[in-house]
Design brief:
By secondary structure, this protein is α/β, with parallel strands linked by helices. 34% of the residues lie in helices and 16% in strands.
Length: 345
């Protein structure tokens, strides 16, 4: 019997408890967030906590941000909740998850009683998506773009090629706002049958503790998801954040942050190039990089002793214990990390 990877292991497990003081390269949340203006908006919303949450304004703001009607938007308590809703609401005889990628979609499907198929992308091909690898009879397909943990950004038309009548195509774009210009996003597309796009505000805006994300899909799918969603699932402070982060000024700030991340990522990859035993998946387009090196598990433990937390890779289907994921940080932190890595290897 094949042992499943621990699909419920996530980067935050690396910095809990006594490890909370480690320099965090395990969690893909942008440092220095949330910004002061966003914290002020959220704090001001606390005066209205006596009232039940009303998502009308936030839903309209998200819809306008993507040029979509409100009927195509559902706000959720983080993108992770959306995976649970999809697993419960979408009838699928043969769901397939494209790996390596974020493991919660498969975990949610399994918890809902589905037998889940896997399409494993290969390092040999740079973990690039080949639509032909997805079974023709798969009626629910989940793919990440850019993909966690590989940092691969698939061309929009390659992902779009998976859409067809009778199939639900779920594209996890939780990290798309960390890509300059949101290149290759399908968020605003309404011409693809069965398309469901998931977005998160956690990563760019530092709102992991607030839990806010959303689903973009056809109105029928939105209604089906809403029927299995608990009442008032998104708190008033989270709704305020969704509205605030969808405005023009916030989008401009996010774009600048994406450009900074791209520059810092290039610097990180260049520094990792100093280690002949390290292989980095390239091109990387997300706010993290995936690297392979001998004795990665031992290196990870030695890095912890040296004050750094990194994400283990063996819990991702399609990877093994020779992989580690690193969040992109500022250059000073990268330099300190590289010094530690030189000792750890």
């Amino acid at each position: 019997m094949t042992t499943l990877p621990d699909l419920r292991h996530h980067g935050d497990a690396e910095v809990r408890g006594a490890a909370a003081g480690l320099t965090d390269l395990a969690v893909n949340v942008r440092t220095g967030t949330p910004p002061a203006w966003l914290k002020a908006r959220i704090a001001a919303s606390l005066d209205g906590l006596a009232a039940y949450p009303d998502g009308t304004a936030a839903r309209a703001a998200v819809a306008a941000r993507h040029g979509l009607p409100v009927s195509r938007v559902l706000l959720t308590a983080g993108a992770a909740e959306a995976f649970v809703l999809l697993a419960r609401a979408v009838r699928a005889a043969r769901p397939v998850v494209v790996h390596p990628q974020f493991t919660e979609p498969e975990a949610a499907l399994r918890d809902a009683g589905h037998e889940v198929g896997r399409v494993l992308l290969s390092e040999r091909d740079g973990f690039r998506l080949d639509p032909a690898a997805v079974p023709d009879d798969a009626d629910l397909v989940v793919v990440g773009n850019p993909t966690n943990p590989t940092s691969v950004l698939h061309p929009a038309e390659t992902v779009a090629a998976l859409a067809r009548p009778g199939r639900t195509l779920v594209v996890d774009e939780a990290f798309m706002d960390a890509v300059p210009g949101e290149a290759e996003s399908l968020a605003s597309r309404t011409d693809l049958p069965g398309l469901v796009v998931l977005r998160s505000l956690t990563k760019t805006w530092g709102l992991a503790g607030l839990r806010i994300g959303y689903v973009l899909a056809d109105p029928e799918t939105i209604e089906a998801l809403e029927r299995v969603q608990p009442l008032w699932p998104v708190s008033s402070p989270a709704l305020t954040a969704a509205e605030a982060c969808s405005g023009p000024e916030a989008l401009a700030e996010a774009e600048k942050a994406a450009e900074d991340i791209a520059a810092d990522r290039a610097y990180l990859i260049a520094r990792l190039g100093e280690f002949p035993q390290v292989t980095v998946v390239r091109p990387a387009e997300g706010p993290f990089v995936l690297m392979r090196l001998p004795d990665a598990a031992g290196v990870r433990e030695r890095l912890r002793e040296l004050g750094f937390a990194v994400r283990r890779g063996d819990t991702f289907p399609g990877l093994g214990d020779e992989w580690l994921r690193l969040a992109v940080r500022d250059r000073n932190t990268i330099d300190r990390f590289v010094t530690a890595l030189a000792k750890a290897v």
